[in-house]
Each structure stands twice: as structure tokens, then as C-alpha cells.
Design a protein that fits this description.
8-stranded mixed β-sheet; 18 strands; 14 helices; about 20% strand; about 35% helix; about 475 residues
């Protein structure tokens, strides 16, 4: 059905139809001539204005649009390719490849607007998702089909952790990953693509980008595009998929821009009145079913470090675990720079993880907390003034700190040290040994940048 454009206000375009009314979220295509090239612009219906007129949001720049142009209603929401062929490729919000290669042909396509799996199909068991990263598995374990918030400033290593998780899922679990870049810098997308190519993980991941320079419609819907690709692997291929969203704050922010452009009355701090519903609709689709699971890691930018801001606050309600990166830890040369005392997980419960894992994790946290409390005394009076028990705590805490570091596969290029995947069993065994004083005779340097405890022992023997 062909309609006519009646008004263009930046990314908001009104289209008139006669005898047909497109439904909300239906895609409308316009052929735009830019620099002599024909370009397909997709509009998404956001509101009905009456008398056959619909208000749409453009998924790309609306340059070249004029009143009276033909706009074709497609009769369906935006459809994006899914399946094996999307792996190793970069897509934009409407499912076109933007990596300079051929477009994805003869692949199944799915609508980006989908209902979450019905409750009867969802898995009710809480299972831990082993990542092979010691500090995460021990102290803030991820749930299979759960949602993890990744908090950290610039340059502390969010992207490196994301890439390591993609690597470990591909090699340790034979699983796949989908990365959605929501409103981030183009440079970061470029860096991630080439770093993944170098670390040989590109063929196990699909990348979707709606960058900072794009209109709010593209930045908002890109999260749904990525999620749709992940849902195909979960529902059709019955796989455990890892879904990365960088940055979930930009999803809320672009929704707020769209809402303002559509003339809706804003709510608290100028956000859209539908913030909680939109966030819930996205997060509800990320879950475990009886066939497979989507586990998501979402980078969370906190505006002005204000955790009560409605955007991050609406994300917190959905998270199962938080991984907090701390610059002070990175400055000590301990990577991954995960803060063992700030990171939390809903799974840290003896009924889910078992008594041993829970007790070792709590023991590690207590030792590190005690060391933190003693640091003022050490700074003023020195180690000699501490009691024997406190000296033991400090020595063990320093070993734990060093043992929480780990060489990453994706950082081999920079460090020259081969990456290590540490099983949960080895992680628990190693930290339990430190807490029980089995390794008191070893120097703390033996624990730095090794995988399992066997490597630390071998390093100690070598350096004797």
C-alpha cells in the first residue's frame, strides 16, 4: 500500500494513507535519492493521528525527504536476517550489513518486535553459568539466562572482559554471542571488530551497531535487532547464547529522545513516561527456556555517578549480578580489575551454589574486607605493629588479591602470556587452600597472573 509523506520534522515523519491504516511498529519504506544513489529509508509507525495519518520515526537520517513522496507500507515490522549467516558480520538496525561485504541473502528473517517466551516455556531452575574467569565465578557468579550489569569508567577494561567472555563461551561452551552496540562511539565498534578478528573469535559472534551519530530510532531499536538474532539461536538451535549490550543506558536515553520528538509529556528528569515498560519489554525477552538460554552482560553508564537516575535505576530492577570494575585495582596491575567487595550476585547462596563454594567466597570477602580495614593502621604504623593473626590475614589477603588476577586469551597479543580458562572446581580449590593457610610458605608473586593453583605452585618451585 502506497502512502504520501505529509510532514517531515527531523527524525519524525508523518505519512498519509487512503483506505489503509498501518499498525503500530509497522515498517514503511521510502526510496530516497542521495548523491545520485537510491537509498532505502525505513520508517517505523509510532502513533496514529487520525484520518489515515500516521506518525513515524526514521531509522536513519531523513535528509532528502520531501512532502508528497511515496512511502510503501510493508505490512510487517522491521525484519532482520537470523541464522548461521549472521555470524562474523556487522549489521545496522534494519538488518543490512555495514562491513563492506555482500548483503546476507537467503537467510530466514524475523521481526524485531517479539513477545517474550510464555511463562510455561521458561526454565525455573537457577543454574550457574561458568565463565572461566576466577573472580567472576567465585564471588559474583552469573546465572544461566540471567542478566549482568557491567559497571566501570573509561579504560578500566569493560571491552576486554566482554571479549574474553565471548572467547570463553565460544571455546569453553561451544556457544555463540551477539553484540549490540547501542549508541556508542563508532571508533569503539571499529576497535572491537578488529580486536575480535585478531583473537579469532569473530566467527562465533554477530555484531549489530546503532552508533552515537545515528538518529534516536536507530539507537533504540538496535537492541531489539541484536536480541532477535540471539533469540533465533536460543529457540531454533537450542543453544546457550551470550548477549552483550553496550550501553544499556543509551537505550533508555534514545527512548527519551523519541518520546520528546513525538510530543509525549515527560516524566521524572525528562525521561519518557513509558521508561519502565520499555525496559521491561526488552529485559523480559532475555531469559532461559527449556531449550536454551540467553545470558546478557549489559554495560551500564551511570550519568553523573547518580545511581538514583531513572535510567540506571530501571535497569537495576532486572539484574541478577553486578560486575564492578575499579580503577584502583587496575592501577595495581591486577587484571581483570573487578572489585571483589563491590561486585554482587543473587546466586551467592548456599542453596544454589552449595556450601563449599559459598563458604570459600564469603571467606575470601571477609579476608579482603579485614585487609581493607587494616590498611590505615599499616600506612601509619607499619606491619610490625599488627598482631600475628592480623599479619596472617594481610599476607593471605595479598595472595588472594594477586590470585584474583588472570591472563586473558584476548590479551595474549599484548602480554605475551598464554590465556587461561579456570574451571570452577579449580577456582574453589585454590582459594580454599589460601584461606586454610596451605600456601603460607609461598611468595605472593607466585600467585600473580596465573590460572589454577597448580600453576602458582609450579611458578613458586621455579623461582625458589
Amino acid at each position: 500500500m502506497i502512502g504520501k509523506i505529509s510532514q517531515v520534522m527531523g527524525p519524525v515523519v508523518d505519512v498519509d494513507f487512503d483506505g489503509y491504516l498501518p499498525v503500530i511498529n509497522e515498517a514503511i519504506e521510502v526510496k530516497v535519492n542521495l548523491d545520485g544513489n537510491e537509498h532505502r529509508l525505513v520508517l517505523e509507525v509510532a502513533a496514529h493521528l487520525g484520518d489515515g495519518r500516521v506518525r513515524t520515526i526514521a531509522m536513519d537520517m531523513s535528509e532528502g525527504l520531501v512532502r508528497g513522496m511515496d512511502a510503501r507500507a510493508t505490512g510487517a515490522p522491521i525484519q532482520v536476517p537470523v541464522g548461521e549467516k549472521v555470524l562474523g558480520r556487522i549489521f545496522n538496525v534494519i538488518g543490512e550489513t555495514i562491513d563492506g561485504g555482500e548483503q546476507v541473502e537467503d537467510s530466514p528473517t524475523w521481526s524485531i518486535h517479539r513477545d517474550p517466551p510464555p511463562l510455561v516455556d521458561q526454565s525455573t531452575t537457577t543454574e550457574m553459568f561458568e565463565t572461566g574467569i576466577k573472580v567472576v565465578d567465585l564471588l559474583a557468579p552469573y546465572a544461566k539466562g540471567g542478566k549482568v550489569g557491567l559497571f566501570g569508567g573509561a579504560g578500566v577494561g569493560k571491552t576486554v572482559i566482554i571479549m574474553e567472555l565471548i572467547h570463553n563461551v565460544a571455546h569453553g561452551h561451544d556457544g555463540l554471542s551477539v553484540f549490540a552496540g547501542v549508541g556508542e562511539r563508532t571508533r569503539e565498534g571499529n576497535d572491537l571488530y578488529y580486536e575480535m578478528k585478531e583473537s579469532n573469535v569473530l566467527d562465533k559472534v554477530a555484531l549489530c551497531y546503532g552508533q552515537m551519530s545515528e538518529p534516536p530510532g536507530a539507537r533504540n531499536r538496535i537492541a531489539l535487532t541484536g536480541l532477535t538474532m540471539a533469540e533465533y539461536f536460543r529457540d531454533e538451535k537450542k543453544l546457550d547464547v551470550l548477549m552483550f549490550i553496550d550501553n544499556i543506558f543509551r537505550y533508555a536515553q534514545s527512548g527519551s529522545e523519541m518520546s520528546a520528538l513525538l510530543g509525549r509529556i515527560p516524566s521524572a528528569v525528562g525521561y519518557q513516561p513509558t521508561l519502565a515498560r520499555e525496559m521491561g519489554a526488552l529485559q523480559d525477552r532475555i531469559t532461559s527456556t527449556k531449550n536454551g538460554s540467553i545470558t546478557s552482560v549489559q554495560a551500564v553508564y551511570v550519568p553523573a555517578d547518580d545511581l538514583t537516575d531513572p535510567a540506571p535505576a530501571s535497569v537495576f530492577a532486572h539484574l541478577d549480578a553486578t560486575t564492578v570494575l575499579n580503577r584502583k585495582i587496575a592501577e595495581k596491575g591486577i587484571y581483570p580489575a573487578v572489585d571483589p567487595l563491590d561486585s554482587t550476585s543473587r546466586l551467592l547462596d548456599p542453596q544454589i551454589l552449595g556450601e563449599e563454594h559459598y563458604n570459600v567466597a564469603r571467606g575470601v570477602q571477609q579476608t579482603l574486607q579485614k585487609y581493607k580495614d587494616l590498611q590505615d593502621i599499616i600506612a601509619i604504623l607499619g606491619m610490625d605493629e599488627l598482631s600475628e593473626d592480623d599479619k596472617n590475614v594481610v599476607e593471605r589477603a595479598r595472595k588472594i588479591e594477586k590470585f584474583l588476577s588472570q591472563p586473558f586469551f584476548v590479551a595474549e597479543v599484548f602480554t605475551g602470556a598464554p590465556g587461561k580458562y579456570v574451571s570452577l572446581e579449580d577456582t574453589i580449590k585454590g582459594f580454599k587452600g589460601i584461606l586454610d593457610g596451605e600456601y603460607d610458605h609461598m611468595s605472593e608473586n607466585s600467585f600473580y597472573m596465573v590460572g589454577s593453583m597448580d600453576e602458582a605452585i609450579a611458578k613458586h618451585e621455579k623461582n625458589k
